[in-house]
Structures are given as structure tokens and as C-alpha cells.
């Protein structure tokens, strides 16, 4: 007998092993028709696979969270079949699902172009219409190698040899007469794949991601459960293109990047003003929450990184430094310095200076720390991915009993910061132990339990993100949703019992004995560079007044208003507002248009009449309305509106 427990707690019993399809049919014909796959004790499986033991099961349909990944994985296989049918002799390599779609890498002498996409998409639709069953088979490594070599699939044959050498099963999925090497799972047939897919672009890629290997052609696509979802996604992409922070940043005069400093940002005065406003906002929130601010060195001997465990994990991503002169090198000996890629080991060094009593805990240590990490040059993307960045980093040293209240306090702090910056919606992922990690399983059990308890106390609903924790501890990942529905992982909270042990951090407890503190790693923005890029795209450059790089433009209508305009500009600047004065010999319509393109929230138009009456004509960005106010009234209103939000 096999007893299968359904999500509602009911139990279905069978006298023999049953497939997921048979289970769905036993529940009802509607579910049998809608079924795409089955989860067995949390493991996603094909509907055709037998369930031969008691288990908790869930039938996956198009409404399930797992459906999109299945759809996108199948779309990749259908793409590969379509390409090989249309372009015989093309080799296939890998084709996974991605966050918003899928891709497949091909080997073909002739280049693919977007002009090929309509023909490929049409063939994909035909394959869907064929309703080909997807059947899993297990082959011996020798049979698989023989098949792929005979078919001219040298890349697949190479991968089979490697899998076979590890003693793993060779899993093949047959799609009609076409087949591919894949671990699955898949939809039961191509007819279950919605036709809500679209090919997006073609790009170069390297075999197995190694630049030393042959270059492949990667075709990217997107796939969704419905045509409406696909249309909404494409609309979102169009809107994202309009909001590209690189273009808006250039139009607003905020920053630029150039080849002589790959991955580093040249901040212009307006952009740096935005940065400082954001930094002062965060600093004020930290001060109110009981944090102390520190500053740690940029160059740190590799010995510290070895002791912390970062050298083994991140050495390939570190920039190294050594003296140039022979005399200095002789004086330094064999010392090698790393430009710090993160701040945490340095914060432990501050904690370790002197004897810390339990009465002093928790210690909340914050730093706007400048860090450098090597990112491949092809991965650079404006502010979103850089080599030189500043983290809003902090570490909380506390007792184990203080973990939950400190985590709850941080979550409240983070919520307030996000709301003030215009993000009311976020999700939280729980990332547990990775395969390669430091510390014992017992330590990880304790850290994961503590983090789950903290999340529960903070009222967080968690999404499991398996294996994505840091090498020293589990973490919560806070994912913001922007104004056009895109998700951005920004904040993190990590519990670490490993680094205090490795770096010999200790405090004196109530029993006069030394104890290891718990170390909470936390960030809200992540990196300033990336978060500013997110803000630019979230607001499309139309920042709220308090955050705007330039808050007010004072523009003259006629030269008769020049002297008064200068007086108004000075009064605004003296009140702490960021102001530009525009007395150019241009028509007011031209000035309004130029400052509107620069996304200045408020324009004060001043002519002869305003100068005589000591008033200003107020225009708001995006509005044709105009309001005339006395200077002091306008000043008071703007100062109040531009105040940095407090806790």
C-alpha cells in the first residue's frame, strides 16, 4: 500500500506504486487535465514518474509557483528542436530556464540574427501543436556517447563522458523523435507548453562559461503562462528601456563611466549631491537606531583574509597590491595586500581592541565602506554592476539571547528606510547553507534556527532559497519591487557564528568567562551605486523633492528679473535647498523645457512683475499649472517639503 498525503491533509491510498498522472486522475478529471508535474516530499517530478512510497504530494498546475520554471525549461527544449529541424548540422549544448525566460547555446558556422526569430518561433509553435510526449529514459554512458558522436554532437558527448566518470545516471528526454541530455523534470507533452513565448536576442557565450573554450551562439527567449503575462512583460521591458539609468543619468548630468576606469564611477556635482543626500538620510536612521560609525583601511594584509576565510573563497575576485620600489619590497618582505572586497573582518578587528563586557552588547558598528571586487569587463552595466562600490554595511556584535530582538529591530529599521525611499513592497528569501561552507553542521543548525526564529518574530513570510547562504552563515535576502514590477535584491541579514571563532572575537560574560559573540551582518541598500541606479529607474528620474539632485531652478522671464532672481536663488540656497540659477538670454518656454528634461521638480519663474511684488511663479515638473506665491511663503513650503524624512 502507498499512502499519499495531499496539501489539504487528506490521504489517498493505492495498492501499488502510482504515477503523478494517475494520482491527478484519481482526484478528479479537471485536475488530470490541468496537471503539469508533481511534487513528492518537496521534490519536483515528471507526471509519468512512479511514486512507490508513502509521501506528501502536490499536483503542480499552471497556477503553481513551480509552473513558470517548467514552462521555460520546456520552451528551451522546443527552441533547440526547432533550430535543429530548421538548420541541420547545428549542435546543441546547454539550455536552462532563467529568471524571466530561457536560453539555449548552439554551435553553428553561420551566425543567427534576429531576422531568424520569426521562422524559429513559427516552428516552435508547430512543435507545440504536435503535442509530442516528453519521456525520460536512462542510458548507459557508452550508449549515450555513441549516439551523440554519431549525431555529430561532440559537446554533448564530452559532457556525457564527464557525467559517466562521476558514476551518475545519464538522463535523456525524448521529445517525439528528437532527444536531449537533461535531468528534467518536464511537462508531460509539448502541447502543454503555452504559446506565450518570444525570442528576444542572440549573444555570444563560451562553452561551459570559460573564455578559453570555443565560442557559442546563445539565443535568449522569454516564456509565460498566458499571452496576457507575455504582453505585460514586454510592456515592462519597453518601460524599463525608457527608464534606463545610464541614459537618464546622462541627461541629468549625474555621472559617467569610461574605459580608463572600468567598473568605477565618475560622480558629477549633481550626482554626488544625490549620493550625499542618500548617505545622510541613511546615517540619520542609523544614528537614531543606536549605531556607531567607523572607518576601516582599504589595504589589508592577505593574512587577515586567510584567517577570516575570505581568501580561499574570494581570492580570484580581489585586487592585490604590493609596493613598486625594490627597497619597499625588501622592507615589506613577502607581504601581499588586498584592496578590501568587504568590511566584516576589519570590523572584528575594531571589536577586538580592548576587553568587551556583556554589558556593552549589543555593539552596532556601521561603515559606508569603499570596497573593490573584480567583475569581468563584459559584466559591467552602468551603476548596476561595478568593481568599485560603497556598501551601507554594518555588523552587530551581540549575545545569542540578543539575536532575535536585534534582528526584529533591524527589520523595522529596514522597512522604514524602504518606505521613505518609495518602496512599499518587498519579499524576503531565506538562504540556507551552501555546499561549500565554513563551520560545522551543528553551528549551521544553530544559525539557521536562530535566523528562522528571528524572521518569525519580525513577522516575515519567507521564501526558501536553498543553498544560497554566505559561506559563513545563513541569510535573509530582502527583494524590493519597483514601480514597474521588477524585483531587486538589496538588503541582507546574516547570522554568523563562524567568523567570531576564526578571528578570536570574545566578550566577558556575566560569569567573568570569555564567550564568542554572535555576529549579524546586515545591509539595507546593498551598494550605493547600484541602489542609486535602482532609484533612478524606479522614479524615472522624477525624484521626490527631498531626494532630487537639483531641487529648484530659478529661471528669469526677462532680464528685468535678473537681480531679484539672484536674490531668490541665494535665499533658497541659504535655506539648504539645491538650486540652479538660469538667467540665460532665452525664452522662458525654452528654459522650462530644458529644466523639465533635467527632471528638476520645481521651477520658479521670475520676471519684472514678480520682482516688483516679491513673488515667484511656481511650476511643478509634469504639470502645466502655475501658482504665484510670496517669496517667503514659497520658501517655507519648499523647505518643509525638502526635509529629509526622519525615523
Largest sheet: 8 strands, mixed
Total DSSP E strands: 35
The number of domains is 4
Which fold does the CATH topology of the largest domain refer to?
BirA Bifunctional Protein, domain 2
The computed structural class is alpha+beta
Strand content: 25-35%
What is the radius of gyration?
30 Å
Mean pLDDT: 93
Helical coverage, percent range: 25-40%
**Cross-sheet strand order for the largest sheet:** 17-22-23-30-27-26-24-25
Regarding CATH, which class of the largest domain?
Alpha Beta
End-to-end Cα distance: 60 Å
Residue windows where pLDDT falls under 50 for at least 5 positions: none
Shape: globular
CATH architecture classification of the largest domain: 2-Layer Sandwich
Q: Give the quaternary arrangement of the chains.
A: single chain
Q: What is the CATH superfamily of the largest domain?
A: Bira Bifunctional Protein, Domain 2
Please give the count of helices. 21
Secondary structure layout plus pairing:
Elements: E1 2-5, E2 11-14, E3 18-19, H1 20-27, H2 29-34, E4 37-40, E5 43-45, E6 50-51, E7 55-60, H3 67-86, E8 91-92, E9 102-107, H4 117-130, E10 134-139, H5 141-150, H6 154-165, E11 170-175, E12 178-181, E13 197-206, E14 215-223, H7 227-242, H8 245-252, E15 255-256, E16 266-267, H9 269-288, E17 292-293, E18 299-301, H10 302-308, H11 310-314, E19 319-321, H12 326-332, E20 337-339, H13 344-351, E21 356-357, E22 363-372, E23 388-398, H14 403-420, E24 426-431, H15 441-457, E25 462-465, E26 475-481, E27 487-496, H16 498-502, E28 507-508, E29 514-515, E30 518-527, H17 528-539, E31 552-556, H18 562-574, E32 579-582, H19 588-597, E33 602-606, H20 608-613, E34 615-620, E35 626-630, H21 631-641
Parallel strand pairs: 1-7, 17-22, 21-28, 24-25, 31-32, 31-33
Antiparallel strand pairs: 1-2, 3-6, 4-5, 4-7, 8-9, 9-14, 10-11, 11-12, 13-14, 15-16, 18-20, 19-20, 22-23, 23-30, 24-26, 26-27, 27-30, 28-29, 33-34, 34-35
Helix pairs in contact: 3-4, 5-6, 8-17, 14-15
Amino acid at each position: 500500500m502507498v499512502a499519499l498525503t495531499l496539501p489539504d491533509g487528506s490521504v489517498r491510498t493505492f495498492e501499488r506504486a502510482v504515477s503523478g498522472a494517475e494520482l491527478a486522475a484519481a482526484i478528479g478529471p479537471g485536475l488530470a487535465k490541468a496537471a503539469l508535474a508533481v511534487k513528492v516530499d518537496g521534490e519536483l517530478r515528471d507526471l509519468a514518474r512512479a511514486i512507490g512510497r508513502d509521501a506528501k504530494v502536490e499536483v503542480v498546475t499552471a497556477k503553481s509557483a513551480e509552473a513558470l520554471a517548467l514552462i521555460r525549461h520546456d520552451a528551451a527544449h522546443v527552441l533547440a528542436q526547432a533550430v535543429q529541424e530548421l538548420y541541420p548540422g547545428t549542435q546543441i549544448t546547454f539550455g536552462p530556464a532563467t529568471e524571466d525566460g530561457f536560453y539555449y547555446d548552439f554551435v553553428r558556422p553561420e551566425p543567427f540574427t534576429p531576422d531568424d526569430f520569426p521562422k524559429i518561433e513559427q516552428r516552435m509553435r508547430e512543435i507545440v501543436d504536435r503535442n509530442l510526449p516528453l519521456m525520460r529514459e536512462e542510458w548507459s554512458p557508452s550508449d549515450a556517447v555513441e549516439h551523440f558522436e554519431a549525431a555529430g554532437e561532440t559537446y554533448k558527448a564530452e559532457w556525457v563522458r564527464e557525467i559517466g566518470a562521476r558514476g551518475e545516471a545519464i538522463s535523456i528526454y525524448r521529445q517525439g523523435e528528437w532527444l536531449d541530455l537533461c535531468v528534467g523534470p518536464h511537462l508531460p507533452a509539448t502541447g502543454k507548453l503555452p504559446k506565450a513565448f518570444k525570442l528576444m536576442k542572440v549573444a555570444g557565450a563560451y562553452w561551459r562559461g570559460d573564455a578559453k573554450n570555443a565560442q557559442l551562439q546563445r539565443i535568449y527567449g522569454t516564456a509565460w503562462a498566458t499571452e496576457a503575462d507575455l504582453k505585460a512583460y514586454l510592456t515592462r521591458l519597453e518601460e524599463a528601456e525608457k527608464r534606463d539609468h545610464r541614459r537618464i543619468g546622462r541627461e541629468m548630468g549625474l555621472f559617467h563611466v569610461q574605459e580608463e576606469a572600468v567598473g568605477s564611477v565618475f560622480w558629477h556635482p549633481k550626482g554626488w549631491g544625490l549620493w550625499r543626500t542618500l548617505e545622510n538620510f541613511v546615517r540619520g536612521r542609523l544614528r537614531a537606531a543606536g549605531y556607531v560609525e567607523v572607518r576601516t583601511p582599504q589595504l589589508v594584509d592577505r593574512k587577515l583574509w586567510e584567517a577570516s576565510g575570505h581568501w580561499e573563497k574570494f581570492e580570484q575576485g580581489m585586487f592585490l597590491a604590493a609596493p613598486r620600489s625594490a627597497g619597499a619590497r625588501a622592507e615589506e618582505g613577502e607581504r601581499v595586500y588586498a584592496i578590501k572586497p568587504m568590511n566584516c573582518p576589519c570590523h572584528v578587528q575594531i571589536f577586538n581592541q580592548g576587553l568587551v563586557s556583556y554589558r556593552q552588547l549589543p555593539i552596532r558598528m556601521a561603515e559606508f565602506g569603499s570596497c573593490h571586487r573584480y567583475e569581468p569587463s563584459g559584466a559591467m552595466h552602468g551603476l548596476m554592476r561595478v568593481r568599485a562600490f560603497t556598501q551601507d554595511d554594518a555588523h552587530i556584535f551581540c549575545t545569542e539571547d540578543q539575536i532575535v530582538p536585534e534582528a526584529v529591530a533591524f527589520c523595522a529599521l529596514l522597512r522604514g528606510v524602504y518606505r521613505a525611499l518609495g518602496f512599499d513592497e518587498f519579499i524576503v528569501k531565506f538562504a540556507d547553507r551552501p555546499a561549500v561552507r565554513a563551520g560545522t553542521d551543528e553551528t549551521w543548525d544553530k544559525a539557521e534556527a536562530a535566523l528562522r526564529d528571528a524572521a518569525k518574530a519580525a513577522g516575515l513570510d519567507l521564501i526558501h532559497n536553498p543553498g544560497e547562504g554566505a559561506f559563513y552563515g545563513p541569510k535573509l535576502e530582502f527583494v524590493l519591487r519597483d514601480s514597474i514590477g521588477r524585483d531587486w535584491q538589496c538588503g541582507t541579514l546574516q547570522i554568523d557564528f563562524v567568523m567570531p571563532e576564526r578571528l578570536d572575537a570574545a566578550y566577558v560574560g556575566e560569569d567573568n568567562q570569555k564567550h564568542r559573540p554572535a555576529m549579524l551582518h546586515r545591509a539595507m541598500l546593498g551598494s550605493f551605486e547600484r541602489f542609486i541606479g535602482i532609484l533612478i529607474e524606479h522614479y524615472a528620474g522624477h525624484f521626490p523633492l527631498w531626494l532630487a539632485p537639483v531641487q529648484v531652478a530659478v529661471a528669469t522671464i526677462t532680464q528685468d528679473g535678473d537681480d531679484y532672481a539672484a536674490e531668490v536663488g541665494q535665499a533658497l540656497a541659504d535655506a539648504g535647498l539645491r538650486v540652479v540659477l538660469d538667467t540665460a538670454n532665452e525664452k522662458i518656454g525654452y528654459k522650462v523645457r530644458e529644466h523639465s528634461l533635467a527632471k528638476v521638480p520645481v521651477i520658479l519663474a521670475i520676471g519684472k512683475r514678480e520682482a516688483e511684488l516679491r513673488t515667484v511663479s511656481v511650476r511643478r515638473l509634469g504639470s502645466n499649472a502655475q501658482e504665484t506665491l510670496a517669496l517667503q511663503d514659497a520658501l517655507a513650503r519648499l523647505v518643509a517639503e525638502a526635509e529629509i524624512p526622519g525615523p
